[in-house]
């Protein structure tokens, strides 16, 4: 398939855009923020805690499907075939390569991070890309590349947004998807603008420093998002922003 399609991802902490070949999309998953919320609120329940061996398909299936994020993918039991689990194992091997883990000797934290966090988030992202491409494969649109896809992730500071996004970008690139990232830190007010804002609001100490509400150049951020959304020369709705 063509590699010329561009998609734009917006994450609360990181922006990224990517391109991918067309394949049949899996079932439409829920919002990415729901995945993160599930991960943060999980109390363990019936999760299997022993890290699986990548050579044991049944163990990998059980470990992934009992993780807190898996239900958000809305996969049916019959969808979790041996072939699909083998694809998960291959993805985890690539994730381990990116993260510097040994896929055959991960500790509990590493296994949970790869199999139950990064893998489901990657599968969610891939599903959105493929569904977006599929939506633009119509007789009226087939000549034009689809507009960039916009996806949003909102999570508290320290949840690892930057790390998961940078890992996703690397994995997407390895699998034939062109990707890049841009941090929200790049749309702060300039130093002079921040000083002027603080001077105009002397009773609000929060406006003296970057990082707080009011310290970003919202206009620049919107302009950047719009420009990247139209990078293909085809204006679109930009997909999904959350």
Automatic annotation (TrEMBL):
Domain of life: Eukaryota
SUPFAM superfamilies, sorted: P-loop containing nucleoside triphosphate hydrolases (SSF52540)
UniProt keywords, alphabetically: Signal
Span of the signal peptide: 1-20
Protein name (Swiss-Prot/TrEMBL): Glycerate kinase
UniProt source species: Micromonas pusilla
Organism taxonomic ancestry: Eukaryota, Viridiplantae, Chlorophyta, Mamiellophyceae, Mamiellales
């Amino acid at each position: 398939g063509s590699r010329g399609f561009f998609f734009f991802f917006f994450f609360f902490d990181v922006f990224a855009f990517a391109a991918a070949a067309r394949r049949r999309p899996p079932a439409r998953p829920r919002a990415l923020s729901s995945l993160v919320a599930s991960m943060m609120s999980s109390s363990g329940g019936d999760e299997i805690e022993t890290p699986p061996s990548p050579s044991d398909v049944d163990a990998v299936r059980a470990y992934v499907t009992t993780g807190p994020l898996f239900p958000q993918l809305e996969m049916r039991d019959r969808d979790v075939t041996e072939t699909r689990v083998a694809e998960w194992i291959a993805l985890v091997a690539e994730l381990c390569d990116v993260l510097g883990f040994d896929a055959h000797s991960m500790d509990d934290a590493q296994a949970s991070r790869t199999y139950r966090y990064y893998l489901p988030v990657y599968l969610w992202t891939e599903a959105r890309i493929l569904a977006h491409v599929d939506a633009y494969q119509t007789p009226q649109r087939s000549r034009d590349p689809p507009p960039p896809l916009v996806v949003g992730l909102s999570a508290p500071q320290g949840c690892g947004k930057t790390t998961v996004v940078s890992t996703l970008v690397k994995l997407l690139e390895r699998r034939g998807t062109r990707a890049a990232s841009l941090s929200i830190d790049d749309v702060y007010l300039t130093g002079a603008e921040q000083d002027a804002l603080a001077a105009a609001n002397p009773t609000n100490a929060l406006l003296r420093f970057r990082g707080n509400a009011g310290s970003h150049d919202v206009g620049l951020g919107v302009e950047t998002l719009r420009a990247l959304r139209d990078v293909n020369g085809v204006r679109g709705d930009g997909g999904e922003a959350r």
